[in-house]
Amino acid sequence: MARLLVIGGGRMGEALIGGLVAAGWAAAEELAVVEVDPSRRDELSAAHPGLVVGDQEVPADAALVAVKPGDVAAAAALAGRAGAGRVLSVAAGVTTATLEAALPPGTAVVRAMPNTPALVGVGASAIAAGTAAGPDDLDWAAAVLGAVGQVVRVPEAQLDAVTGLSGSGPAYVFLLAEALIDAGVLNGLPRPASRALAVQTLRGAAALLAETGEEPATLRAQVTSPGGTTAAGLRALEAAGVRAAVLDAVSAAAERSRQLGG
Length: 262
Fold this sequence. Notes:
Blueprint: E1 4-7, H1 11-22, E2 31-34, H2 38-47, E3 52-54, E4 62-65, H3 72-81, E5 86-89, H4 96-101, E6 108-113, E7 123-129, H5 135-146, E8 149-153, H6 159-167, H7 169-186, H8 191-212, H9 216-222, H10 229-239, H11 242-261
Parallel strand pairs: 1-2, 1-4, 2-3, 4-5, 5-6, 7-8
Antiparallel strand pairs: 6-7
């Protein structure tokens, strides 16, 4: 019997498999994955020796649903046939109620919203419990997702806001990175140098936030001298409405998540 059956061998499913093995949560031989694409099954087998890979379910203690929203009902039925007592879903917009309706009564369901930096082990995920999931089930889900990043616990009603903030957030950062690189080129830098400086600036700023525990406003003030270059740049950003645009972006993404879930 597999310790965890991963239903869907896409990028997120594979990221979690790799993270769980690297963190020592399970050996590859204790994990199984169901993937319908034969070429993808071959890739997974080659990348993770010992991993049980197939196109049908195997008996499992628990299951991870990592498929597109339209495939969730079939994936949940598969998890039920595998005998999974716990199901963790990372399918965007699919409620715990929908999952529970497709699973045997009493199955502990935890819904999660991870983001793509999980692919490199620094993801941000939020989890919410279904009606049959208790504290132990949330602890289990947090341990699974904690193998690829940080996990917070929220009521399910807040997962749409999580989607707008951290689920879609990497795209906002990538857009900012594009703009910074282009701005460096506009001001005379070679593109490779501009890219290197922009990426390291974003990495360093995030590390300062994470490691110092200071509020963003405090760190911003520390780098902003009166009448200096940073003050001039910030004035241009505020005049362009960047802060309001970010608020609108997160709100728009959260609202779209609500629509998809409805």
